[in-house]
Structure formats: C-alpha cells, structure tokens
Amino acid sequence: MYKFLIVGGNRLKGTISASGSKNATLPILAACILNSGENLIHGAPRLRDVSVMEDVLSYLGARVVCEGNTILVDSSNIQSVEISEELMRRMRASNLVLGALLGRFGKVKISYPGGCQIGSRPMNLHFKGLQAMGANIQEKYGYISAEAKKLSGADIHLDLPSVGATENLMMAAALAEGVTTIRNAAKEPEMVDLQNFLNKAGCKIKGAGTDTIKIEGVRGSELKPVVHSVIPDRIEAGTHLVAAAITGGDVTVANVIPEHMEPLLAKMREAGVEIAVGDDYVRVLGSGRIRAVDIKTMPYPGFPTDMQPQMMALLSLAEGTSVITETVFENRFKHVGELRRMGADIKVEGQSAIIKGVEKLSGAYIEASDLRAGASLVLAALAAENGSILENINHIDRGYERLELKYNALGARIIRVHN
Questions:
Q1: Annotation-wise, does 306 bind a ligand?
Q2: Which residues carry this modification: 2-(S-cysteinyl)pyruvic acid O-phosphothioketal (predicted)?
Q3: What contacts 124, CB < 8 A, 6 or more positions away?
Q4: Same domain, yes or no: 271 and 407
Q5: Last-in-domain residue among 178, 208, 229
Q6: What pLDDT was estimated at residue 113?
Q7: Total structural domains in the chain?
Q8: Do 87 and 202 share a domain, yes or no?
Q9: Of the residues 1, 116, 189, 234, which has the fewest C-beta atoms closer than 10 A?
Q10: Residue 368 near residue 396 (C-beta atoms within 8 A)
C-alpha cells in the first residue's frame, strides 16, 4: 500500500497529455472475447483496472501481451466461461464479460463484481435485457449463471440509461440471431468507441451515442481481428483542468476530444475560469478566485458524476455558495468529510451538498474512499497551505496513470511513499 505526501501552494504550469480512456478500454477488452485472432488495442492506459481485466481474460484462456500502452488479446483458445470470485471482486467492470461470453459460448458463470462503493449499481438491467434475448439467468450463493442455446434479437427498453448494461447488451446482441434494439441506451462517448471496435470486427451496429442502438446479429465465424486506438480519457482530462484552476495555474491538456468535455467546460466557464479550446487540446489559465455555481449530475450529455468530487474541491474555494446535487450514485459524497478536515465548509442535505466557499484550505491527514474522491483530495491538497498526507491511493491508481509524475512535471510536489 502507498500514500501521497503532497505539499500545496504551487501553481501548476505547462502541458500534460490525457491517457487513453479507462472506461473505453475495459469494454473493448471484454469485446475481444467475441472474435478469434490477435486484436491490438493501442493507447490503453496502464492502470490497475486494466490489469485486472487482462487477468480476467488470461484466466479464461486468452493470450494477453502488453507492451507499453498497446495490448494484444487473442481469444482463440478460450476454454473457461467461469471466472473466480477473487478476480470478480477486484473490479466492478469485470461484469462486462457477461454479454461477450454469453454471446459467443452460450453460457457464463460469474460472481457479483466489486469496485468502488459509491452506491448501488444493480445488475437487474443487464439481466432483463439478456432474458429478453432468450437467456436463462439464475442467481445463487452470490453467483450469476446464464445460459442460452442461441440468443435472439429483441426490443429492449432500459429503465435507466445504464452504461454497463448498454455495453453488455451490445456485445451479447452482436452474435444473436436477428435484430436487437436498445432504447434509452447510455449515450457516453465510450459507447461510440465500443461500437467502432465491434464494427471493425465485422459486427453491424449503429446508433451508439444516441438513445437508440440497433444491432444486427452476425455469425461468430464472420468476425475478424481488429487494430484499434481508444479515445482519450475525458474524466482524467477534466481532472487536470480542475487542477489548473484550483492552483491558479496555466495548463494545456493535450490529447483530448473537447466535445466530450463540454458539460464540464460549460460549468468551469460559468465559474469564471478562463478556457481556450483547440482541435485536440484545452488550456486553462487561472485568474483569481472563481465564482460559485450550482451543479446537478446527470447521465451523458449532462454533467458527469465522475467529475463531481473534483468540482467540489474547486468550489470549496469559490466566492459564494454552491449547491451540488448528485442524482447518479447515492453514496458519492464520501469525500465531504475529508474536505472538511482541510477547512472546507460543506453541508450535506439528502442528495445535495451545500458548499460555502472559504479563503483557503489547510493541509491535513486525509484518506481516499474511492477513485474520484481520491482525485478530489489530491486537487484540494495541491491548493492547500502546508502539507497533506493522502492514504489509500490504490483507489487513485485504478483510474489515473502515475498521477504524481504528471503533476510534478507541472510544478507540483507529490511524493509516493510505501506505508
């Protein structure tokens, strides 16, 4: 286990590049199960969650080779359709193999996945969609078993635009007989990247990025290996932009798709942050104290829940009172108590946090409870007076590729030490 020692008060300045998207890489790796041959995934971030998915694929019998930010996956010799409980508990997104294994082999057995404890993320939407396609699903003793002689196309309406359910159903439907329509589908950019990967392999999918996705099933023998580069990570890039703003810095974040970040950019502009946007970069120039704003998290293209904790750190130093309403995950205010330790004035009432901006934050002994909460506390510590000790940074390593090295190159003082 490691922790960060962070000395605050330094203005970040320079250029930083966003890594490939974690939330695009994970479903694409799972989608490699559908075809045989050597799939090459370029731009994959070297993160704990990605390593877990690689271990899952290897456990199933796939050949997985990593060189830098490129991952080779050959699923030709997959033998098992059952994953150990230990592997499943290491990451929430391990459940993404459900649709791919069921689509290719007609059966799968997994335990309930683990991951950050930020709220309930039930699997019922996954199950309802797969059952509509003809799968028989049983839940016993913490395990999920699914079987289908052959999945059939179906018209599926999701109760909520679940990202994971949309991805699982896309993969399962890719090899089903007939046409599947997913309505009220998740519209995140990562859906489009998964569609692009699957279509390169020979699938017939259209509509990703809208609320209706249509999948015309093909035979597995028609699929071919794919070479694909994942999109940039919009959440990592957004975190860097807030880091620049909270330290009054001047930072250009390269390797981004600005359109994917527009909900965040709009709120930062509303708060008075100076932003310049190019074709593949965004620059933030810190210029004095920011203004209070109100935020309500929503599924894409609304304000992303994954940027809520980072914005809370920024707004804790704003002029005036801000209100953040969290509508996606009910337990996503765990960072509030830690920000209070640093001098933030925050009160939680139900699904809303009321933030009265303060003049300064102070260094403290703090602890990350989950991935984005950890990022929030790093940002707060960068802006705080004196030093902070941040424990449980294993959460941060799940979603940020050596964050301290990137920030130290911009002038931060962050030291990773072993407990």
A1: yes
A2: 116
A3: none
A4: yes
A5: 229
A6: 66
A7: 2
A8: yes
A9: 1
A10: yes
- Using DSSP bridges, classify how beta strands 365-367 and 387-391 pair: parallel, antiparallel or unpaired: parallel
10 in a known ligand binding site:
no
Q: Which of 32, 66, 116, 203 is catalytic?
A: 116
Q: Which of 49, 13, 91 is nearest to 400 (CA)?
A: 49
Mean model confidence pLDDT for the chain: 93
Residues 13, 33 within the same domain: no
Range of 188's domain? 22-229
Whether 250 and 309 map to the same domain: the answer is yes
The residue ranges of DSSP E strands in 278-372, in sequence order, are 281-285, 295-296, 321-325, 345-349, 352-356, 365-367
Task: State the number of CA atoms in the 13 A half-sphere of 98 facing the CB.
Answer: 31
Question: Cα dist. 155→132, 170, 174, 179, 223 in Å?
Answer: 8, 12, 14, 8, 24
Q: Could you confirm whether 116 is annotated as catalytic?
A: yes
> Residue 122 has what pLDDT?
66
> In residues, how long is the chain?
419
- Looking up residue 311, the CATH number of its domain turns out to be 3.65.10.10
Domain co-membership, 62 together with 107:
yes
Q: Three-state SS for 168?
A: helix
In a shared domain, residues 265 and 186 = no
What order of strands is seen across the sheet that includes strand 38-42? 63-67, 70-74, 38-42, 227-229
Q: Are residues 197 and 332 in the same domain?
A: no
DSSP 413: E
Say whether 200 counts as a known binding-site residue: no
Number of other residues whose CB lies within 10 A of the CB of residue 370: 23
Establish whether 136 is an annotated binding residue. Answer: no
In this structure, are residues 235 and 306 in contact, taking their beta carbons and an 8 Å threshold?
Answer: yes
Residue 22 labelled as part of a binding site: yes
pLDDT of 120 = 45
Q: Do both 319 and 404 map to the same domain?
A: yes
How far is it, in rounded angstroms, from Cα 122 to Cα 368?
24
- For residue 166, the tally of other CB atoms under 10 A from its CB is 29
Q: In the listed set 196, 229, 262, which residue is the last one of a domain according to the structure?
A: 229
pLDDT at 364: 97
